[in-house]
Structures are given as structure tokens and as C-alpha cells.
Amino acid sequence: MKEQTIKNIVDTHLEKWMVIGLNKLPGQIEAEMADANHNKSEEWRIWFPIDSKATDTEIEDFETLIGYRLPNDYKTFLKHKHFYNLHISEASFFEHPVNSWQASLIENIFNGYPKEFLIDKGFVPFADWSDWGLLCFDTSKNKQNHNYPIVLWDHEMADKVEDRYNDFYDLMIKADEEDKNSRSQ
Questions:
Q1: Are 136 and 93 in contact (CB under 8 A)?
Q2: Which domains does the chain carry?
Q3: Is 57 helix (H, G, I), strand (E, B) or coil?
């Protein structure tokens, strides 16, 4: 049930992105995700989400690289779709392109903001939160089942985090609801 709910939320928001025509980026798009009919001379390229090819072994390798196990709900997320942009409410999830998803996430985790404020303290970032900061797994809590709470790390006050969501599933449910509420007003 939880797995399907996460997948449905992701699909809904990726579809919304495509319907309003914002599935374009400047530069290279991986071939499997690119619009085959797009004019290659144009700077902005159309991309499409595709079914994820991330395997359990690749995710385990990724966990080894970052030094932390990931929540099962986030693994469901990683194994569902590849995308370049996914926005749900104020959360902008780090891109998840088909052939370079690990490298893309590693770049954001280790080379985005100074790692001594994040990964070195057990905060594993996975999404931007508006222009405020980063959503991170707080690996200091719920270590036994890796179902970490989500904190908001403020890029203006690097030593401060705010408890935000109980876990990844809670984030998905509440962000989806926040998005729906903001559109109905």
C-alpha cells in the first residue's frame, strides 16, 4: 500500500510537470529520456520520465558510498522513475537520470554545500526545499530500521536543522496534500 501510494504521488507530479510543458532543460539529456523528435539545434531539450532501472545492488553500492543505509520508502522512490525535475509542494527532489543517478546524488550530497554541515553530521540531503535549504534524512534517529525523520537544513544558518516530517512516506503524503491545497486556493 505505501509503495503504491509513493508511486502514485510521483506519477501525478511528473505528469503535471509534462502537461504544463516544463519538462525541458538546457544541455544534454540522456538518450533514453530525450524526445527523439526534438530539434537537436535547440538549446532547451525535452525530457520524459521513464521507469527506473536502479537495482537493489546499485542502491546497496550507493549506500556504501554515502556510508548510510536508506529508508525502504526512499528505495521505492529510487526504483520507480528516472527524472530530471520533480517538484512536490516546496520540495524539489535531486535529479535521478537513468545512467547517472548515483553520480548525480553523490554530487549533491558531497559537493553541494559543505559536507561538514551535512553528511559528516549524519544529514543525508535528497531534495531542495524552496530557496530555504535542503531536506535531509537525519540518520542519528531510527537507526535500527533506517526509517529516518526528515529535517530541513537551513543554508543561511548551517548549524541549525528543523524537524520537518516523521519519515519519507510522511513527507510524500503531506507535501502532496500541501501542493493540492495551494492549487485550490
A1: no
A2: 51-184 (3.40.1580.10)
A3: helix
How many degrees, rounded to 5, is the angle at CA 48 between CA 46 and CA 133?
Answer: 90
Residue bearing cell 553520480: 103
Distance CA 75, CA 140 (A): 19
Q: What is the mean pLDDT of each run of 10 residues along the chain (185 residues)?
A: 97 95 90 88 92 98 96 98 97 97 95 89 96 94 91 90 97 96 74
Residue 185 is predicted with a pLDDT of 62
State the Cα–Cα distance between residues 133 and 122, nearest whole angstrom.
Answer: 16
Of 111, 103, 102, 118, which is closest to residue 160 (Cα–Cα)? 118
Find the radius of gyration of the CA atoms of the chain: 16
